[in-house]
Specification:
122 residues; mainly beta; five-stranded antiparallel sheet; 1 helix
Length: 122
């Protein structure tokens, strides 16, 4: 959009990602009905196996970003207001189930961020 004072730019984007496994895990039930880790055969309860699988699976997030720019002074000044991850999705983007240690580590998406940017051209 152009006005007598300069230009205004509006931008919004969104992305959808389906449910994703961020780190492979595997469990099986042996002939005796015991749930075991597929990598080392260690026995686990159903709740622990489900917990490891959940820690390695990212749910399906919607990511929303927006930015507004105003360009002034014949293009010499640009002022922007922006926001990323506006829905504050804190889903899992990486993980490492440490099955043998009975633990799991996950990396969550960066939280909502917002700010302003000013650019001056000489």
């Amino acid at each position: 959009m152009t006005g007598s004072f300069g230009r205004v730019w509006l931008r919004g984007d969104f992305a959808y990602q389906s449910k994703t496994t961020v780190y492979p895990t595997g469990f099986y039930t042996d002939g005796a009905g015991v749930i075991r880790d597929a990598t080392n055969g260690q026995a686990f309860s159903a709740a622990d196996a489900a917990g490891f699988t959940a820690a390695a699976t990212d749910r399906a997030p919607w990511l929303i970003n927006a930015r507004t720019n105003v360009t002034l002074l014949d293009g010499k000044l640009d002022i922007a207001v922006w926001g990323r991850n506006l829905g504050n999705e804190r889903d899992i983007v990486g993980g490492l189930p440490l099955v043998g240690l009975g633990s799991a580590a996950v990396i969550r998406r960066e939280p909502r961020t917002y700010g302003t940017t000013a650019t001056v051209k000489f």
